[in-house]
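REQUEST FORM: STRUCTURE PREDICTION
Request ID: SP-0412
Submitted by: Lab K.M.
Chain count: 1
Length (residues): 138
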Amino acid sequence: MVNRRGFTLIEVLVAMALFLIGVSAILGMFQLGGGLDRRGLTEARLAPRLEELAHALRADAWQVDAQGDFTGVRPVQGAEVPGAPGYRWDLVVYPAPEAHPDLVRAEIRFWRRDPERVLARTSLLLPRRRPAAADRRP
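STATUS: Completed
RESULT:
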């Protein structure tokens, strides 16, 4: 009868592999949690500004030519978010659906350092309206 004291090399390697898999999973959860924390912080900073930004866009998003005809939506790229220092926003406009030609779906994308790294986004409908400045012209 053989008296075994200790573990074999295979048993030790299997135990170390299981331990490393468990530690990797736990570290992955910390990274995921940190990303969610950053996203929540970004959305909390931008949320109070969204309503006023959307209202301003709906009121003054359309370009009008000298005859008063609509020529399109004003392009916005890299504009500062009022009241949220360091944040910038772009306006992305999608074609109007055939069923509702007077509505255009737009998306506001918020970013900080790199416009390709969008931190938050929100969609809205832009009704075809004359800008406030065009209404004041005689």
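NOTES: The chain has one domain: 9-135.
Reviewed by: T.R.
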